[in-house]
From TrEMBL:
Belongs to the short-chain dehydrogenases/reductases (SDR) family. The keyword Oxidoreductase applies. PANTHER family: 3-OXOACYL-[ACYL-CARRIER-PROTEIN] REDUCTASE FABG, SHORT-CHAIN DEHYDROGENASES/REDUCTASES FAMILY MEMBER. Pfam families: adh_short_C2. PROSITE patterns: ADH_SHORT (PS00061). Its EC number is 1.1.1.100. It comes from Nocardiopsis eucommiae. GO terms for molecular function: 3-oxoacyl-[acyl-carrier-protein] reductase (NADPH) activity. The gene is fabG. SMART domains: PKS_KR. Residues 3-176 form the Ketoreductase domain. Keywords: Oxidoreductase. This is 3-oxoacyl-ACP reductase FabG.
Length: 234
């Protein structure tokens, strides 16, 4: 049976690849987006996840169209990179409000229906930066590291209701953001990756598809790096 799926930040990049992967598996997939246009063939719901009222309205729209959300992928995120000495308090707090607190908002809203149904799959998209750290990204790294403790706490809370919660930590992935890097910077990154290449958005999507599917039914509280070996040991 088709499940009701919601992917936040699903109109481009990693989020869109995840949405397409789950839709290809037969699920009914909705995506939230804050700007731009909704992707063709998927239910697009405009939503800023820093606003609880917009989150609630988005879930109601998805529920009306395809039923209560059974699979949630919390992917929406932002960066505001700066060295700590120059970083404003707003640049720090706004990144946490989107990446970490935004995931809290959507997960809290999703688990209502999941607990009633006694089934759910939640996947939080973190980053290798949350495990390794990165100069100039203290705000981003803190938000992504926070998802690990958040996800594992939810896994313990919700396991008895047959709800799994897992964290995927992508490394450097071929997206618009990495495409903007210079050739020298890309070569430097690849030297630090044991597999010697950047990942693809499909690499992330396939991992999420496993966790959200029947094969991942006994996996919860896991942090799965998809980073070519960059963050091994963390």
């Amino acid at each position: 049976m088709s499940r009701s799926v919601l992917v936040t930040g699903g109109n481009r990049g990693i989020g869109l690849a995840i949405a397409r992967e789950l839709a290809a598996g037969g699920d009914n997939v909705a995506v939230t987006y804050r700007s731009g246009e909704p992707p063709e063939g998927l239910l697009g719901v405009r939503c800023d996840i820093t606003d609880s009222a917009q989150v609630d309205a988005a879930f109601k729209e998805v529920e009306d169209a395809q039923g209560p959300v059974e699979v949630l992928v919390a992917n929406a995120g932002v960066t505001k990179d700066q060295l700590l000495a120059l970083m404003s308090e707003d640049d720090f707090s706004s990144v946490l409000d989107t990446n970490l607190t935004g995931s809290f908002r959507v997960a809290k809203r999703a688990v209502r229906g999941m607990m009633r149904k006694r089934f759910g799959r939640i996947v939080l998209i973190s980053s290798v930066v949350g495990l390794l750290g990165s100069g100039g990204q203290a705000n981003y790294a803190a938000s992504k590291a926070g998802l690990v403790g958040f996800g594992r706490s939810l896994a313990r809370e919700l396991g008895s209701r047959n709800i799994t919660v897992n964290v995927v930590a992508p490394g450097f992935i071929e997206t618009d953001m990495t495409a903007a890097l210079s050739d020298d910077r890309q070569a430097e990154i690849k030297k630090n990756v044991p597999l010697g290449r950047l990942g693809s958005t499909d690499d992330i999507a396939k991992t999420v598809g496993f966790l959200a599917g029947p094969g991942g039914g006994y996996v919860t509280g896991a942090v799965i790096p998809v980073d070519g070996g960059l963050g091994m040991g963390h």
